[in-house]
Amino acid sequence: MLIRKSSICLAILLGLSACSKKETVLSQRETWLSAGGWRMTNYTYNTRAAADKAPIHLEFITGRECEADDVYRFEATSKLQWDKSGTLCTTPQPALVEWGTWQLLEQDTKLSINHQGRVQFPYTGAVTGPLHIRELNATTMLLETPEIQTPDSIMTYTYRFVRQ
Fold it and tell me: What is the pTM of this model?
């Protein structure tokens, strides 16, 4: 009888503890983002003149062998890892770097990246605020920075990624 009561109490306690666990349900964009690695194929630098200057459009293709094979991994745990395990630009250099953390905001339309208190991808400068998600699906990701005001222009960066 005592064993039976103990078994019932144990079953109730296990049931209650299972109910108290919060299950994380990922949105479709979180699933696409965290389901493998992303390779940056290019990034674009755009300016439009704040005064009477001509706009500038520069496209940088991450074609250096040591950059072109880098992979960014947006882990489901909100960690962003920079995987440089292909060709390294300089040695000694760690192949895998915990770059920071990430979070989707505003109904999954913006991507916040925290790299030492800044929004920044390797090889590009820090920007203010979360990145606008212009496209995100199972194979392609296109991100754009908020407008950056300089004394003589307004600029944005656009980053294009493909699924690895």
Answer: 0.76
pLDDT of residue 38: 95
Q: Give residue for tokens 């990246």.
A: 113
Alpha-carbon separation of residue 58 from 73, 76, 88, 156 (angstroms): 26, 33, 25, 11
DSSP 124-157: S--BSSPEEEEEESSSEEEEEPPPEE-SSEEEEE
Which has the closest alpha carbon to 46: 37, 35, 54? 54
- The pLDDT tens digits of the residues spanning 43-85 come to 888 888 766 667 777 777 656 677 788 899 999 999 999 998 8
Alpha carbons 109 and 31: distance in angstroms, whole number: 14
Residue with tokens 């109490």: 9
* 3-class DSSP state of 21: coil
Cα 89 to Cα 69: distance, rounded to the nearest angstrom: 11
Backbone phi and psi for residue 122, each to the nearest 5 degrees, phi listed first = -55, 150
Q: Is 96 left (phi over 0), alpha (psi -120 to 50) or beta?
A: beta
pLDDT in tens, 102-111: 999 999 999 9
Sequence letter at residue 40:
M
